[in-house]
Specification:
This protein is of the alpha/beta class and 314 residues long. It folds into 2 domains: 132 residues, 2-Layer Sandwich (Nucleotidyltransferase, domain 5); 172 residues, 2-Layer Sandwich (Nucleotidyltransferase, domain 5). Helices cover 41% and strands 24% of the residues. The protein has 11 helices and 13 strands. A 5-stranded mixed beta sheet has the order 3-2-1-4-8. Helix 5 runs antiparallel to helix 8. The longest helix has 25 residues. The chain is globular, with a radius of gyration of 20 Å. Bound molecules: zinc ion.
Length: 314
């Protein structure tokens, strides 16, 4: 039995076919082109699913969809997707009608959390918190072996937990959010304030093929011994530790999985992050929790496919 996983991104929409063990059998992608509107998108999405069904037929039993934004998992409606500029778009209903397959939709970080739980951790932990550290910060929770939704399906907005009263402005419009310090854009904004002579810095530390002032460049600089870069990463670790400490105290997870582009700088932010976690007074949950980093860039789409299968076959 096979499942389709779909990741609806701002630029591309990715489809994968995986088996129950999470092994990838096929992948496709098409341009999301949000400006053409939801109706056009659903039509193209339905056609892409149909194309996969021509290849895999009855082996395909389910569809799982992850989308960035506020998702209502019960009604299958994408309530708000800031990166697409869409509000209240029905996705699950129309797609089920077109394909005849059971579909489940979740926030993309929830699907990445499910991917971490099934693929990375092989369901060894019942209580898992996953943080996706990219341009923004998302999170998802598996509690008691189930994906946790909260009352409105919004659970897991860890990026907007406040870590600094009246602090830096966040993309959500609030101030002092975790994302306003530890999202990749925010990290580079802090770096820009500290590092003078950006052009020289890029020349020295950016990867040859991508001449950009980004977190890869900042990691290369830390690696080369640049003090400012190391300071920015240590600060990032402290902020991340502060956000994570609160989440760990509330949830008491057995494992925390960090994933996304920023997590590749683990060597430079993890020590400071661990120090903050180690300094907590109520320390039992911190002594027990395992912190894992996943470099698997496909956790979201593969997790979506596995979640769809889990739902359809239970
Ligand atoms: Zn925010």
């Amino acid at each position: 039995m096979l499942g389709i996983g779909i990741d609806i991104g701002g630029t591309n929409t990715k489809l994968v076919v995986v088996n129950r063990a999470g092994k990838l059998l096929a992948q496709e992608r098409f341009k999301t082109e949000a400006v053409k509107g939801p109706a056009s998108f659903i039509k193209r999405l339905g056609a892409a699913v149909e194309a996969l069904r021509r290849d895999y037929g009855r082996q395909l039993v389910s569809v799982g969809i992850g989308a960035a934004g506020d998702v209502d998992p019960d009604s299958g409606v994408l309530r708000f997707a800031p990166n697409l500029g869409w509000r209240n778009v029905k996705i699950v209903g129309p797609l089920e009608k077109m394909t005849g397959l059971p579909c489940a939709m979740e926030n993309d970080a929830n699907m990445a959390a499910w991917g971490a739980y099934e693929i990375e951790l092989k369901k060894k932990y019942d209580n898992v918190l996953a943080l996706t550290l990219g341009t923004g910060i998302g999170s998802g929770m598996i509690l008691g072996g189930k994906l946790y939704h909260g009352a409105t399906g919004t659970a897991g907005e860890a990026g907007h937990v406040k870590i600094e009263p009246g602090g830096r402005l966040c993309g959500c419009g609030g101030k002092g959010c975790l994302e306003a310090y530890c999202g990749s854009r925010a990290i580079m904004a802090r770096a820009r304030e500290l590092i003078k002579g950006e052009a020289d810095f890029i020349k020295k530390f950016a990867d040859a093929d991508r001449q950009r002032f980004n977190t890869i460049c900042l990691t290369n600089a830390a690696e080369a011994g640049n003090a400012a870069a190391r300071r920015i990463w240590a600060e990032t670790g402290r902020y991340l530790g502060m956000g994570l400490a609160g989440l760990i105290l509330v949830l008491n997870p057995g494992c925390v999985v960090l994933t996304g582009g920023v997590s590749r700088a683990r060597k430079w932010f993890l020590p400071a992050m661990r120090r903050v976690l180690g300094d907590q007074q109520i320390n039992t949950p911190f002594r027990r929790v395992k912190i894992k980093i996943s470099d698997d860039a496909d956790l979201g789409s593969h997790g979506a496919a596995l979640f769809g299968l889990e739902r359809a076959l239970k």
